[in-house]
Amino acid sequence: MELRVLKYFLTIAGEQNISRAADIIHITQPTLSRQIKELEDELGVELFDRSKQNRKFLLTDEGTRFYNYAREIVDLSEKTIEEFRTNNSELYGKIYIGAGETASISTVAKAFYNIKKNHPRLEINLFSADAFTISERLDKGLCDFGVFIGYNNIEKYNHLVLPQKNIWGLLTHKDNPFAKLKSIRRENLLEHYEPVMISQQAQSKKELMEWFGGSTESFNLIGTYNLLYNASIFIKENICSALTLDGIIDTSSESNLRFIPLEPPIYSEVVLVWKKGMKLSKQAQTMLDEVKKNC
Questions:
Q1: Which of 27, 201, 273, 287 is packed most tightly, with the most Cβ within 10 A?
Q2: Is the pLDDT of residue 169 over 80?
Q3: What is the distance between the alpha carbons of residues 95 and 109, in angstroms, rounded to a whole number?
Q4: pTM > 0.70: yes or no
Q5: How far apart are CA 132 and CA 122, in angstroms?
Q6: Nearest Cα to 147, choosing from 269, 248, 231?
Q7: Quick one: three-class SS letters along 108-124?
Q8: DSSP per-residue letters across 111-177
């Protein structure tokens, strides 16, 4: 199994068309078809459903499973090459960071900006996801750093507390009566039986569950989200409100969304983590040193 062929496979999967994939890769379609068929023979499965009905190359169930492995192998290969290409005089390549949604990422952004001024060839690769997915990528070596909200499950990582704390509150439509309040108490949600979405990570936070009184059963929780942007569309349509952290979605005067902090207030620390026992690349170590200056 060659890395080159894995890249061919990923290109076809992305284009869903072998002719376009061949043009992108700059090889002939028969050659590309033969390479993929040899890969399938090696694996003993069909990776694509070569349907004549719509002429699309769609992944089979086995192909979808293999896609995840191929993507990780190619990403790790590229990351490894970038790390070893860095010379003593200049930093280049990418710094890989997995992060949950938080305004505290600004500390990381400022650090990267400061490094970038002296090392213009340096790049950053941001991957937004929940803490579980980021942990997986850290453990597999696909991320240099993770940005976690709170201290859950960070025992196996080194960590650095970022300076900006996050406050929890209710994100709601400007026409919602709650938008006029200075703070939200749990009685407000109970009395009006306000439909609310809650982040998946919030369900594991002890402080938030205590704010709910130990259980959310009496509240009108209509669903969960892992990243806020799509949930904010529901709020813009005035379908529901959402329990979230401040500073993620625009709530300026031009926006039709408003953020109201919880009462009593609940804050979350944000931590930058990296894997214990693993030597950071030169570019990642430089990034960490720069972040530490502001912590």
A1: 287
A2: yes
A3: 12
A4: yes
A5: 28
A6: 269
A7: HHHHHHHHHHHCCCEEE
A8: HHHHHHHH-TTEEEEEEE--HHHHHHHHHTTS-SEEEEESSTT-TTEEEEE-S--EEEEEEEETTSG
